[in-house]
């Protein structure tokens, strides 16, 4: 399920009878506005001033609800904290091994990889994930 906007994500929640609370709306809005794939702690810190009664557990619980509804992806890389990505379209991730920053990129030719894999292996392919690892421009500049 590929959502392309915050409004479509909210509609998807309504279809699954999930009530849209102000906290849920704020968490979802933050994810859609953020290009940094924030951790639950980062989301909590960004919203705690607006929602003083919200806990980190509340953020985690809502992210789990969003994940189950198919509007948020949990990105787990190694031992680092999970990062969360609003499901906007098929895309891939370039990950900085120094600071952990994740940057989205698209590559239409990679969707062909599923067809090739299915043909070669006989698998019924459901999905694929691609990650590119390196150092981001900011970390490279800091090394100099």
Automatic annotation (TrEMBL):
GO terms for cellular component: cytoplasm. One of its GO terms (biological process) is negative regulation of DNA-templated transcription. The keyword Ribonucleoprotein does not apply. Gene3D superfamilies: 3.30.1490.190, Winged helix-like DNA-binding domain superfamily/Winged helix DNA-binding domain. The keyword Nucleus does not apply. Binds 1 Mn(2+) or Fe(2+) ion per subunit. It comes from the Bacteria. This is Fur family transcriptional regulator, peroxide stress response regulator. It comes from Shouchella lonarensis.
């Amino acid at each position: 399920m590929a959502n392309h906007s915050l409004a479509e994500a909210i509609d998807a929640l309504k279809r699954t009878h999930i009530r849209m609370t102000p906290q849920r709306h704020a968490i979802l809005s933050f994810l859609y506005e953020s290009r940094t794939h924030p951790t639950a702690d980062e989301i909590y810190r960004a919203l705690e001033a607006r929602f003083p009664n919200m806990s980190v557990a509340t953020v985690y619980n809502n992210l789990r609800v969003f994940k189950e509804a198919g509007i948020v992806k949990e990105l787990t890389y190694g031992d680092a904290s999970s990062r969360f990505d609003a499901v906007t379209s098929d895309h891939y991730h370039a990950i900085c091994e120094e600071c952990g920053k994740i940057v989205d990129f698209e590559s239409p030719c990679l969707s062909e990889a599923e067809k090739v894999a299915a043909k070669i292996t006989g698998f019924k392919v459901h999905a694929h994930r691609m990650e590119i690892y390196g150092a981001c421009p900011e970390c490279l500049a800091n090394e100099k």
